[in-house]
Automatic annotation (TrEMBL):
The keyword Nucleotide-binding does not apply. InterPro entries: GH (IPR017853), Glyco_hydro_3_AS (IPR019800), Glyco_hydro_3_N (IPR001764), Glyco_hydro_3_N_sf (IPR036962), NagZ_Beta-hexosaminidase (IPR050226). The keyword Hydrolase applies. GO terms for biological process: carbohydrate metabolic process; peptidoglycan turnover. Residues 35-325 form the Glycoside hydrolase family 3 N-terminal domain. Keywords: Glycosidase, Hydrolase. GO terms for molecular function: hydrolase activity, hydrolyzing O-glycosyl compounds. This is Beta-N-acetylhexosaminidase. It comes from the Bacteria. It comes from Nonomuraea jiangxiensis. Belongs to the glycosyl hydrolase 3 family. Gene3D superfamilies: Glycoside hydrolase, family 3, N-terminal domain.
Amino acid sequence: MSQSDRGLRRLAAGTLLVAFQGTTAPEWVLRELEDGLGGVTLFGFNVADRDQVRELTTALRGAGEAVISLDEEGGDVTRLAYHVGSPYPGNAALGAVDDVELTRRVYRAIASELAACGVNLDMAPSADINTEADNPVIGTRSFGTDPELVARHTVAAVLGLQAANVAACVKHFPGHGATRVDSHLAIPVVDVGMDVLRARELAPFRAAIEAGAKSVMTAHVAVPVLTGDAPATLSPAALTGLLRGELGYDGVVVTDAMDMHAITKSVGLSGGAVLTLAAGADLLCLGPMPDHDDVRHIIAEIITAVREGRLPAARLEESAARVAALRDWFGAPQEVAAEQNGVGLHAARRAVRLTGAPGPLVAPLVIEVDTPPTIAVGDVPWGVGPWLPDAEIVRMRPADADVLGLLAKAANRSLVVVVKDAHRHPASQDLVSALLAARPDTTVIEMGLPVWRPASAAYIATYGAARANAQAAVELLTA
């Protein structure tokens, strides 16, 4: 391979954030990092404990100047605490409190833990405005429905993360909050005019850019007035025209996971890689599915696109310069003490809301109504069990519930029903209503968004299903 060929391959590889299975780095990842790979994205399956993550990131960084990223939003979306649930409430809870200094402190604490583990880019915060209650993918990941509230808390999150030398990645540009489709599965559409988009969806991104956000993540969302049928990730009008031009952003643009169906089922993984680079992206998060063969194929396709004139080499050089500037900002790895100041539980306690008066707990039966997790959240544990060790916990899908049997089991006992986003699941609503008809003294705990609530019954809203949210709810229940 000639010098120029090697240089072009390094430029192509430098745009990729790869993933891998397991808790140690495969040899192919280390070799690719030596050959210029942009970096990695870690997932829950890469995490055993903090010390192991630190060893992993040290090995990765030893192989090359790596961007080491993951999704650590707090709340429902966590990678460091994937196996136990996050000690920090998510954005919905922080938005409900509406204390920007608290939000900054929570994100500063999250960043300190990431930095101590060797992670230098957090794919957070979500700046989406959750204007669609039936949104299947954002929900409690959003600070709320009001653009100004979301903007000020997005800024606080950015400042908190970056104060600990962890780059923020504000997502999902130009906004995923007004959708009813999960972009992991198809291409959602935000069918609004540019005036609405500028006043609503773009407000938090504009504020984050002014606050110095180091990176912005694209959304696989089509905005017909701007992108036509294509998702924003593949749209020059969205990434170069709007983000770079109108909003004046010159930081690193990171794509959402390229293995999501919005990309793979439309233009394919390699085709999408070329199109998003041409549109203005700098780092491509490939997601958990692509393996080394896929990575090599993507690199080869990028090289071919440059040689055929479909992708200017200058575009790769521009991306390389932006990523190099980001790495310079990271600086040398530092030992950062994780903040153990209880700010997560403090925030969850401030967010939790109680309507009505739960009675004293007597041999409580807790029914946790199971709901399928979103792909973004994954199989993170949730529920109140850890905080009610003396209770009988029954978890079930609504379809499997025997209402009469449950009522018989709950005779002469306190009955607590825990739901998650009941407003999105009519079967959950039906089960709760049937139980309440016979037991109006039931306490309902909502661990998603409190959109639907029964007309009567004591009701606790947590604004999220993180471990901290559950503890705060149980404290109210047992006070």
